[in-house]
User: What shape does this take?
Amino acid sequence: MKPYVYGIDIGGTSIKFGLFNRQLQLEKKWEIPTNSSNNGESIFGDIVDSIKMHTPDLSQIEGYGFGVPGPVLKNYVQMCVNLGWKNVDLQDRLRDELKNDHIVVGNDANVAALGEAFLGAAKGRKNVAMLTLGTGVGSGIVVDGRLLEGHNGSAGELGHLTIPQEQPIACNCGKKGCLETVASATGIRNIYHRLNEDFTGHSTLYDNDYVDSKAIFDAAKAGDKLAISVVDEAAYYIGYACHVLSVTTDPSVIVIGGGVSKAGEFLIEKVTNEFHRLVFQPTNDTVIVTAQLGNDAGIYGAAGLVKIRG
Amino acid sequence: MKPYVYGIDIGGTSIKFGLFNRQLQLEKKWEIPTNSSNNGESIFGDIVDSIKMHTPDLSQIEGYGFGVPGPVLKNYVQMCVNLGWKNVDLQDRLRDELKNDHIVVGNDANVAALGEAFLGAAKGRKNVAMLTLGTGVGSGIVVDGRLLEGHNGSAGELGHLTIPQEQPIACNCGKKGCLETVASATGIRNIYHRLNEDFTGHSTLYDNDYVDSKAIFDAAKAGDKLAISVVDEAAYYIGYACHVLSVTTDPSVIVIGGGVSKAGEFLIEKVTNEFHRLVFQPTNDTVIVTAQLGNDAGIYGAAGLVKIRG
Assistant: This one.
């Protein structure tokens, strides 16, 4: 095996590059802006240029792993709305320029889960699931050390798990009541606005010009009743999603990442309590933890993908 | 490879034996009663005796696959309440008597899913899930042609998926509101008794001394309003479970088996409609079908296990 591996996380705003040694230790990282104009055609050249600029000798690179924001099946990118891509074969597009056949691709949320399983909060565990609670909700599932892709690349789409609720909110996907509408940063604001309608007391949140999910968590930690009721409801939904992951794929660790996870133990404890109310007893040893790699989970997981898809 | 394979399905009432050729065609099958007294200790000898009686030459047998009613991890049986077994290593118990090291074991519902994926309703598919709606609800998930076991053998426990409901019913597992309480044969009767309380019209079901799930399906097919409302509610729960399987493991086929599945297309059409209301659009090509192997799914899947765990 050659001494270096690239892990590259292609997002709608920026492309993150990580150069790793063969022990998957990060040697250096950087990022460039994503240019999604013209159906994202310039992304391929931008990636090649940036790699060449940072790599004196391409023959030292074992392979390149990529995470992309859309469904992927057997290294083939089906659709990335944020990049403008449709039916993209990254191996075909990059092989000649990089002089390398070892190019592997996964969905970004799946790859992040793999990163946490390899080197983050679930280090060394073989059966891991991850929920990334950001602007939306992503998820990834690792089974026996391998990424679960499903029959058409849509495994681990917990963001679009329908949660039976009295007042389901419309989701970008066209459905109503998806986990994403009540457990993402946006979703927590949705719950706040709904509960606020019937709330009769005073809330410290009323002093804010703009109430975001961080403000809600901060107020809840300080004892604000309205904020606590919002967090409790969100924790139930997240705990329910963990239960769904448990009865289907039975992970030993469920990792919670994304901006919402910055609420830390305050959130994890509530989610764990909800999970324990729902869990099938023989598998109640599953633990729920916060992510450790932050925004780097994608590059770590992408590099890991090079190792497992030799 | 030797010319024959055994697939053996150990149930609480009977042990089913199937002798297959190397193309996994069934050559002969039979069953014996299960003797679970004395912590199921005599089961091992009963199995060996029955195999020897039906097999002129044990050296012609490539291997033995087993399905057992409890969680299994890497061929190790953790617990089978119905058999009286706890921490049983079937390889250890049978290797010497059968003069064979190739002894593989899986959970019965998982193994049934594998049977339907290899040779039944989902023949040749690599990503398959199965719900067995009998007295309880079992389930199994096949990913890339392999059984999903999870970190402690509890993957595919959809029977204990909690369904958010207004009046959840107590389950044998100690929780309330499990899928099993509303989607098994018993569960469909539970829904009938609940809906009947508020039903004001006349139902043809009132003419029956005992209302079982078959009577409910027959009455619904004949247009009985109460029976239709029971079946519609059960179909929603089963459709929701299919949705949960879809957003987690993304199978191409979901197989519905067990006694309840005898309701056939009448049920499948309603379940499919509910599933399509909930499905994440990129994976709406998943099909829901009835099982084809009936009570033989277990022996087929157990024989298949010998092939995939070489």
Notes: Residues 109 and 138 of chain A are 5 Å apart (CA to CA). Chain A touches chain B through 46 residues (CB under 8 Å).
